[in-house]
Amino acid sequence: MRSTLVAYLLWCLIFIGFAGIHRIYAGKVFTGLLWLFTGGLLLIGQVIDLFLIPGMIDYANLKQRVGA
Question: What is the pTM of this model?
């Protein structure tokens, strides 16, 4: 089970240059790498993710429970 708190802590890695790690943690590898190489889509995507993280983690946990 993934944790929303851990995802928010990973989101904070933007301050040392690692944008998108929270997306990789949530199972969104492609967009996580896109965020990593573009600085969180020029920080716009990173700010939007503040509101999207709980949904991403809920979806990843649901996907894990179903076994998809």
Answer: 0.92
Q: What is the tens place of the pLDDT at every residue in 4-51?
A: 999 999 999 999 989 999 999 999 999 999 999 999 999 999 999 999
Which of 57, 26, 23 lies closest to 37 in space, CA to CA?
23
Q: Which two tokens stand for residue 48?
A: 């939007």
HSE (CB half, 13 Å, CA atoms) of 15?
Answer: 5
Spatial distance between the Cα atoms of 33 and 49, rounded to a whole number of angstroms: 14
Q: How far is CA 51 from CA 7, 14, 29, 65, in A?
A: 12, 16, 19, 23
